[in-house]
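Protein fold
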Amino acid sequence: MAQGVFQGEFYNPTKNLGIGIIKVNTEEINYYKDINNKKKFSESIYTPKEVIPIFFKPDYGIFFLICLEEQQLYYKVLSANNEVFYVDKSSVIFLSWEKFLKGTTGISNLDWNANPLHRKPTETSVNSRIRDKEAIFEVKEVKKDWIQIKNEENPAEKGWIKWRKEDKLLIELYLLM
């Protein structure tokens, strides 16, 4: 933070991964600290001050917030500074984690030793060998905390890894390419 303006990273971890992602498509977004008294404030996605996105690259249309809960008129969102806010449902797009992960341009595993490739989406499943640990993988399917991945360069290299453990991402997401 410099002079109260977030100088963010591309990825800003949060304490909770919620139920999905909120995509902000406008340059200015209205937030509510409390939906009961309707006190709102606005921020530019280019210079956020109070609400810090989990993924931030606004010049490429990337401004994503964690969605904690869907309500009748609002989404309850979590800022990367771990404060809770509300946004009007009509001003944003909700993406389930499954839809979001499948829509990435690829992923990589942060630690193949701690999060090995499995043949099936279970801890007890047989591990598969990875030849290119630096490869970018396409997400083919999502089952709870597991994703089925396929090496973009070598389609025979595929299997399942965990994408999250509790509320921590175990993968790096590529949203640009």
The two ends are 28 Å apart (CA to CA). The helical segments are 97-102. Residues 97-102 form the longest helix (6 residues). Residues 20-96 form a domain with the SH3 type barrels. fold (CATH 2.30.30.40).
